[in-house]
Specification:
Blueprint lengths: L37 H10 L4 E4 L6 E4 L2 E4 L7 H11 L2 H10 L1 E8 L3 E10 L2 E9 L14 H6 L4 E6 L6 H15 L3 E6 L12 E6 L7 H8 L6 E4 L5 H12 L3 E6 L4 H10 L6 H11 E11 L6 E9 L2 H8 L7 H7 L1 H4 L4 H10 L5 H7 L3 H8 L11 H8 L1
Parallel strand pairs: 7-11, 7-12, 8-9, 8-10, 10-11
Antiparallel strand pairs: 1-2, 1-6, 2-3, 4-5, 5-6, 12-13
Length: 406
């Protein structure tokens, strides 16, 4: 073996060690690094009212503010920084989960700063994090600029209510707000099954039990198989991810319970199509009938940058399950015609399309024409509407334009 000292200058002579002493002096180990101050990053995130925080090796902490990413004024993160954060925030069960699966979901509360949903994952062999800021208390539907018809939907005695949208569109916030409205206006037993728990609800008029997958129950499926034995009036399922969850949700809605949940779909038409796609062709007639009976409403969201001030505002599509909607879902000989049914139900049932919602915000000066066009379902039709070009028999936008006039 080569001499490790070869090629280096010879050390200066030292006094001979006394007899019996070790010939080599012990080398002092480097002191451990202090824990990384992740709270300072979360504090900066909250102070800037950011919705998300991303941490990865080689980059400074990055926040999402009004839908756009920007870097915080912190040094680029090192591997040891990211490991230190994990050692401080990772619960024991999720630590074991991460060791096996290389990813974990959990929620943390940081005193004096806030509450956060965390996804810890691995990319290119190193740790990375995505933090989502969660309000300690759900806001009101009015504070969130959601349509008043959601109050009526939240007070339905039974049925399935789905809140949909892409990731980061405000589904969890809207769902928590509807649960809060139920809590304030009903005397009901509410069971929530979440992964992880995001908004914390305290009992007001309702008896609320919040169950977290991993700590309070083994899985969504396990919790749902037993939820009907817990005497619920209202069941909130964090997300419908598979056929078993969907079937239990439909069963609960069909047996007299009000069920809230979310789906990662862009609008009401895609939501119904996605539910039907869970089932093979030979079960389509049965599931169409079950869905037509159980469904109460679909609320779809898109967050649009504001023009009047900072922040974003929700464009909201609302489908209420009327007799005409039920017939359309049930009839296998006809294709889904949800957009026309929404337009027809605007005045009587409070339904609205994304384009109607965007027109409302645009004419009030809340959003720009460019953003309205970008988020519209039918940009060309929306552009014609803005120019005042529409069929004489189409009055579906009249209520929104009257709101602006008044």
């Amino acid at each position: 073996m080569a001499d490790p000292g070869a090629g280096r200058p010879a050390p200066a002579a030292t006094p001979t060690a006394p007899a019996g002493a070790s010939a080599a002096a012990p080398v002092a180990s480097a002191p451990p690094l202090p824990p990384y101050n992740y709270k300072a990053i979360l504090q900066a995130m909250v102070q800037q009212h950011a919705s998300d925080l991303h941490l990865k090796i080689g980059r400074p902490p990055t926040i999402r503010l009004d839908g756009e990413l920007s870097s915080l004024d912190f040094p680029a993160l090192r591997s040891e920084d990211l490991r230190s954060i994990g050692e401080q925030i990772l619960p024991p069960k999720q630590r074991r989960e991460y060791d096996v699966e290389k990813e974990a979901d959990f929620a943390i509360g940081v005193p004096g700063i806030g509450r956060f949903r965390v996804n810890m994952y691995q990319q290119r062999g190193s740790i990375a994090y995505a933090f989502r800021a969660i309000a300690f208390q759900a806001l009101s539907l009015k504070d969130l600029n959601l349509p008043p018809v959601l109050e009526q939907i939240a007070m339905k005695p039974r049925g399935l209510v789905l809140v949909t949208g892409i990731t980061g569109s405000g589904k969890s916030t809207a769902l928590a707000t509807m649960i809060q409205y139920v809590n304030e206006h009903r005397h009901a037993n509410v069971i929530t099954i979440e992964d992880p728990i995001e908004f914390l609800h305290r009992d007001i008029n309702c008896h609320i039990n919040q169950r977290e997958v991993g700590s309070d129950t083994g899985s969504f499926a396990q919790a749902l198989r037993r939820v009907l034995r817990q005497d619920p009036d209202v069941v909130m399922i964090g997300e419908i991810r598979d056929l078993e969850t969907l079937e239990i949700a439909l069963k609960a809605a069909d047996t007299g319970h009000l069920v809230f949940s979310t789906l990662h779909t862009t609008d009401a038409t895609q939501t119904i199509s996605r539910i039907l796609s869970f089932y093979p062709p030979h079960q389509q007639a049965d599931v169409r009938f079950a869905l037509s009976q159980a469904l109460q409403a679909v609320v779809s969201l898109r967050l649009v940058p504001r023009a009047d001030r900072g922040g974003r505002i929700p464009a909201c599509e609302v489908l209420v399950n009327t007799a005409a909607v039920r017939d359309n879902i049930r009839d296998m000989t006809k294709s889904l015609n949800i957009p026309d049914l929404i337009r027809d139900g605007t005045v009587q049932y409070g339904m609205q399309s994304f384009d109607q919602s965007l027109m409302n915000w645009y004419q009030k000066g809340v959003i720009t024409y460019e953003h309205a066009l970008f988020y519209a379902t039918s940009p060309s039709e929306f552009a014609l509407r803005v120019q005042g070009i529409a069929g004489a028999s189409d009055t579906s936008f009249n209520a929104f334009q009257q709101d602006v006039a008044t």
